[in-house]
Amino acid sequence: MLLPSSVRLVDVGPRDGLQNEAQPISVADKVRLVDDLTAAGLAYIEVGSFVSPKWVPQMAGSAEVFAGLTPRAGVTYAALAPNLRGLEDALAAGVQEVAVFAAASEAFSQRNINCSIGDSLKRFEPLMALAQAEGVRVRGYVSCVLGCPYEGTVRAEQVAPVAQALRGMGCYEVSLGDTLGTGTAGDTRRLFDVVGRSVPRAQLAGHFHDTYGQALANVYASLLEGISVFDSSVAGLGGCPYAKGATGNVATEDVVYLMQGLGIDTGIDLDLLIAAGQRISDVLGRANGSRVARARSAAMASQ
């Protein structure tokens, strides 16, 4: 399989990353992060989530974040909208693209959103109808595609019908998420081989957490399977609240460095990206989760 000449990176740090932080984060700091990412060349950013603050306190104020951004031409500013109310709020905030999510594991679906996979998909029907009427594109996520904290191993054959259902409902792209970060390169290749039989690979994306240190290997394995869209998170922000010791999403800086080494274009300025990640890490008072950023910082400090 020939590697692609370019890839599209979806930075989910402002949403999937920050939602797991314990400390409050100001709207101004969220806006600065998104603006920093666009300045670095990110063309797709998941800015926030329109969910009840009762369930995800860190996503409160997402409408204010959207209002405070400095829009750049050609950049997609998206939000998670898990239900019809969320989409209505997103539309009111001027959001032009939203994401919905379902699980590949019945146990995870029941524990996470208190309903079966089938029922979760039915809940999206009015949302998809409204999105289509309003001209809003919808991206789909499937979580726990390579492992579940309650069921253990998740087979690719479990993932395929969920991804196919999301595509059939109108999702233009479906991102397959290794929520626990337990998957290996072999698992990943089989996943895309199986799911790719029912959903075109041009409409699939990879979303890998780095809990077991396998995220970059899984990104490369995905490239070998013809995947050219990847979710990542600046400074490796994020984590999984359902798995003890789970770390964040694969760091955008590390993915960009990998792509540069492969001669694959991302359109991203790595130095500006590293600066953006370090700035939000300093705000959070935590170590930068990007190995590339840490190595670059150490090298500069020793000069």
Distance between the termini: 41 Å
Strand residues, percent: 5-15%
CATH architecture assignment name: Alpha-Beta Barrel
CATH-assigned homologous superfamily = Aldolase class I
User: How many strand segments?
Assistant: 8
Main CATH class: Alpha Beta
From the 3D structure, determine the CATH topology: TIM Barrel
In the residues, how many domains can be counted? Answer: 1
Oligomer: single chain
* Helical amount: 40-55%
Series of H and E elements: EHHEHEHEHHEHEHEHEHHH
In the predicted model, the low-confidence regions spanning at least 5 consecutive residues are none
**Total of helices:** 12
Coarse shape: globular
Q: What strand order characterises the main sheet? A: 1-8-7-6-5-4-3-2
Overall radius of gyration: 18 Å
Task: Set out the fold topology.
Layout: E1 8-11, H1 13-17, H2 27-40, E2 44-49, H3 62-68, E3 76-80, H4 84-92, E4 97-103, H5 106-113, H6 117-134, E5 137-143, H7 156-169, E6 173-178, H8 185-195, E7 204-208, H9 215-224, E8 229-232, H10 252-262, H11 270-284, H12 291-302
Parallel strand pairs: 1-8, 2-3, 3-4, 4-5, 5-6, 6-7, 7-8
Helix pairs in contact: 2-3, 2-11, 4-6, 6-7, 7-8, 8-9, 10-11
Descriptive account of the structure:
With 303 residues, this protein is α/β, with parallel strands linked by helices. The chain has one domain: TIM Barrel, CATH 3.20.20. Helices cover 44% and strands 15% of the residues. The protein has twelve helices and eight strands. The chain has an eight-stranded parallel beta sheet with strand order 1-8-7-6-5-4-3-2. β5, α7 and β6 form a beta-alpha-beta unit. α2 packs across α3. The radius of gyration is 18 Å and the shape is globular. The termini are far apart. 51% of the residues are buried.
